[in-house]
Automatic annotation (TrEMBL):
It comes from Amycolatopsis cihanbeyliensis. It comes from the Bacteria. This is Lipoprotein.
Amino acid sequence: MRGMTRKAVIGAAVALAATGCTEDSSQDHELARQQSGYDRLTAAQPAERMSYSPTRATINYWIETWDEPDKLAYVYLQAGNGKLVGYYIFKGLPVSYCASLTPTYRWERHGSNSSRVPAPAMDGVYYTGGGSCQTYYGRDATTDSYLEYTVGTGISALIYEQPLPRQDIEPLGFTQVEDVPR
C-alpha cells in the first residue's frame, strides 16, 4: 500500500514537472503582454465612477415610451440626400429580421467538448446567421396588414412616436397620418 502511494506521488510529481517543461507559445507571450499592459494602465488610470448614468436613463425612457400595447410608430424613410422618401405608420415598433424569440443557436455535446450549432428558427428552417438585419417588418396601424421595408443602400429609417409636422411626405403603407387619432 505504501509502495503504491509512493509511486502515485512520484508519478504526479513527474507529470507536473513535464508540464512545466513545455515552452509557452508566442501567443501565450502576447496574451501575457496584453494582460500586463491592461493591468498597468487600469492601475494608473482607473475608470471613474458615475453618480448618474445618462445611458440607463435613456434606456428606461425608451422602455417607458414603448411599453404600451398598440402604440403607434411613425417610420420615415430618408434618402442619402437627406430628403424624406415617405412614411409608414406601424402598430408597435418595426422589428428586424435579425430579432428572434428563441436563440439562433444551441449547444451540442461531443464527449467532453461542446460546440455551438445553428438552431432552427420559429418557422422550422435554418438561416445562415447573418440574416437580413436591414429588413424590418410590422403591422400597419389601421389595416393590420403586414408591412416590410429595407434600410441601407442610401436609405435610413427615422422612427418617431408622433408624426412629423410636415404635410409634403407621402405614405408608403396603407395608413396616412390623418387616419389615426392623435
